[in-house]
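Researcher: I'm preparing a figure for a lab meeting and need a structural model of a single chain. I don't have an experimental structure, so a prediction will have to do for now. The sequence is pasted below. Please return the structure as C-alpha cells so I can convert it later.
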Amino acid sequence: MTARLVEWFGRARSYVDAYTPADDTHLPDPDTSLSRTQLLSLAIGFTGCDTAESRDQRTYTLVYSDPDLGKRNFQTICVPYYAPASPLRFERDPDGPGCRIVWKPSGEVLTRPRLHAGIFGASSHYYSRVAPDLAELPTAAIISPYSTCAGGCLGCNRNEVGSFTPPPRDYIARHVATVADDYDRRGWDRAELVSVNITTGCQPDEARELEMMLRLIAEYRRQGFTNAGFFPFTYAIDSRAAMDQLREAGCLGFIGTIECVNDAERVRQWGRHKGAITFEQHLGKYRRARAAGFGIVETDYVLGADSYEEMLRGIDALSAAEVAVVPNIKRNYSLAQLDSNHPDIWEMDARYIADGFAACLATYAHGTIKRRAARYCVDYLHRHGQPQVTLRDLPIRHT
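Model: Understood. Here is the structure written out cell by cell.
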C-alpha cells in the first residue's frame, strides 16, 4: 500500500509542479480555474494523511494559500484507516492555527495550510461562508438536521466513520432552535441568513422527503429567518409537482446527487436507492427542475468513479442541460473506498483531477449557490466596515 501511494503521489506532484494555471484575473469570481496549490490540495485530499493525533479524529478542513495567484481554497483531508501506509503526514503547529503536510519519505514540508476546523462527527449545521480573515459570516448555512439516512449508500463517508445517529422525534424544531440561539449568541441578525443548503439525511420516499423539507422551511420562517432562500440537496424529490411545492415554499435552487456518470458504478458505490437512478433519469430530473423555475440547478459529482472519457462526456451532457456540476474529490477512509476508484485516476494521476475539475468549473456559468452566497457576503462585509473586500478576497469552496 505504501509503495502504491508513494508512486501515485510522486507522479501527481510532478504534474502539479509543471501545471500552468489559467489566467482568470480579469474575472470577478476566483473559482473559474484551479491554482497550482488547489490542485495539490486535491491530490492530498485523495491520498489521505497519517497523523500522530487521535485516529478518532478522521476529517480536517484546511485552508490553502497559493503564493502565485493569491487565491485561497478550502479542502478537506481524511485520516484513513490505512493511515500508516500514507506517504503524507498531517502535523498541527503547536501555537496558532497553522499546520503542515509532510512528505514522509524525506521529511519535506510540502505545504503549510491553515487548520480551519476538525470534523469529528455529524453536525446539524455549519456556516459555509467566511470573511477574508476566515471569521464565519451569518449569510449562508449548510444544514443537516436529519441525522440518519434511508439511502444506505455503500460508499458513504458517514457510514465509514460511524457518524449517523437516530434523530429525536422533534428534530426539526430542535435544529432550528439551535441555529436561532447561535445567531442570538453571536449577535447576528437572523434576517442576514440568505442561503440555506438543506444537505441532510434522506427519507425513504418522495412524500416523506417533501414533508421534511417543507416543515424545515416553515420552521425557519417561524423562527425569524425571513430572508432565507433554500436549496434542497436530494435524490428522493423527482416529480414536477413536488418541485413546484418547493418553489412555492421559497426554494431558489435544486441540488441533485448524480455522484458519477456510469450507471453500473453508481449502483455499486451508492447502492440501490440513490444509485439506481440512471444518468438519463438524472438529466430528466434536472430539466424538470429548470422548467419548474429554479434559477440554480446543481448536481454533486465525485471524481474518481468514472473513466476519464466518460467523466468528460457526462459533464458535457449535464452542462448542455444547464446544470452546474459541483466537483468533489473522494475522501478514501477505507481500503475498499480507495480501490473503488477507476484505474484511470491511478494511471493519469493529477491530470485526471485537473481536467475533471476544469470541465466542472466551466459549468459554473449556469449559476451556482456558492457564487450567489459569495455576493451576499461581499455586500454584508461592505455594510460592516470592510468596503475594500471583493469576491476574489474570499476563500474558494466548491462544497
